[in-house]
């Protein structure tokens, strides 16, 4: 059995996440997702819309995901590879070229998968940001051009 491990926050789950998980699972038989905890996200300067437990529940409902474990710090990757007998770690293609994860090649295969063009959690958060409340009621902004394109697909 070939075990694959990937890492991420997976907030505001979208089709880019699903495509990444599908492609990662296709590399092996068993996909483990190390999900960034709320505390780790805070250390990274990120704020998730959904808390860890909600994000974990959503990931566990995806057919490509076999196991979700907490990602508590940058340094745990080597230990995760050893503990879960991982054959390959999958990282987003935006990390390729940096030396951040290259050390993992001593312990397993390291694969970089490109992200899905045209979608990101950051983009979604920016495009769906609410206008100022009017009389205490949040107003939903009109869709941007990129959101309109997504709706048409």
List the helices and strands and how they pair.
Layout lengths: L2 E6 L6 H11 L4 E7 L1 H6 L8 H9 L6 E5 L5 H7 L4 E5 L16 E5 L7 H7 L17 H8 L1
Parallel strand pairs: 1-2, 1-4, 2-3, 4-5
Characterize the structure shown:
- Helix 1 links the parallel strand 1 (3-8) and strand 2 (30-36).
- A five-stranded parallel beta sheet has the order 3-2-1-4-5.
- Helices cover 31% and strands 18% of the residues.
- The protein is built from six helices and five strands.
- The protein is an alpha/beta fold and 153 residues long.
Q: Which stretches are poorly predicted, pLDDT < 50 over at least 5 residues?
A: 130-141
- Helix and strand run: EHEHHEHEEHH
Overall shape: globular
Count the helices. How many?
Answer: 6
Q: Got a strand count?
A: 5
Q: Look at the structure and give the mean pLDDT.
A: 85
Strand order of the largest sheet: 3-2-1-4-5
Largest sheet: number of strands, sense, barrel closure: 5 strands, parallel
**Radius of gyration from the alpha-carbon trace, in angstroms:** 17 Å
Oligomer: single chain
N-end to C-end Cα span? 37 Å
Q: Percent of residues in helical segments?
A: 25-40%
Overall structural class, as computed from helix and strand content, comes to: alpha/beta
Measured by DSSP, the beta-strand proportion falls in 15-25%
Looking at this protein, list some descriptive labels.
single chain, 5 strands, 31% helix, alpha/beta, five-stranded parallel sheet, 153 residues
